[in-house]
Design a protein that fits this description.
Order of helices and strands: EHEHEHEHHEHEHEEEHE
CATH class: Alpha Beta
Subunit structure: Forms a complex composed of PxpA, PxpB and PxpC.
CATH topology: TIM Barrel
Keywords: ATP-binding, Hydrolase, Nucleotide-binding
CATH architecture: Alpha-Beta Barrel
Strand order of the largest sheet: 1-2-3-4-5-6-9
Enzyme class: hydrolase
Radius of gyration: 17 Å
Family: Belongs to the LamB/PxpA family.
GO molecular function: 5-oxoprolinase (ATP-hydrolyzing) activity; ATP binding
Number of strands: 10
Largest sheet: 7 strands, parallel, barrel
Amino acid sequence: MQLTVDLNCDMGESFGAYTLGNDAAILPYVTSANIACGYHAGDPAVMRKTVELALLHKVAIGAHPGLPDLAGFGRREMTISAQEAFDMTVYQVGALNGFVTAAGASLHHVKPHGALYNMAAVNAGLAEAIAEAVYKVCPDAVLYGLAGSEMIKAGKRLGLKTANEVFADRTYQPDGTLTSRRLPNAMLTNHEDAIKQVVRMVKEGKVLSQQGTDVIIQADTICIHGDGPHALEFARYIRQVLENERINVAPTYSL
């Protein structure tokens, strides 16, 4: 049986006079796009244009809600209640879904961003609130979360379709969480190392932690980042390697 994995990328992170990422160039190499919803990045015009670009390239569209922290790009933790997590998720997913509906399409998935994503990976209360928000706004959407995390568990409890996400360019801790960006060696900057990690996660279901121990992991979807200096080169390379390894690249729960 041929292995299949989704390749997702965060997009629509430009806003106002500021341009971030290279969305149009990267879209041909990914199968799903996580579009910023205006809190950590993005604005209404960018949301609309990115939805249109994704449809042009037949890429599955997802909402990418984050914390209301434009200055920190949503990567700084905030103390929020479960109710606040629910409210901000409903608000942002609803906004992106409006542009998707206006374009005559359907929202495929929801993936929280940055600190909100990492907080909900280990905090069952926040995970439950986010999953409930997705269920009430777009019950047919796939909930993307860190592989094996509280987010995945919460989505399954509510009956949502879920996708265990792994990261090409991040290092892992023995409990399966990502190494904090504040710590040394949180990122894999060498393309070969990142590719080896990805292929092993997909084929063997394992990833080597920073501490040298193997972590069991399920890879339904792989995240690549579109805002790095070599993002386009890496997107092209990882797609080619996956196909060379006879791994089918397609959205989770293909539309």
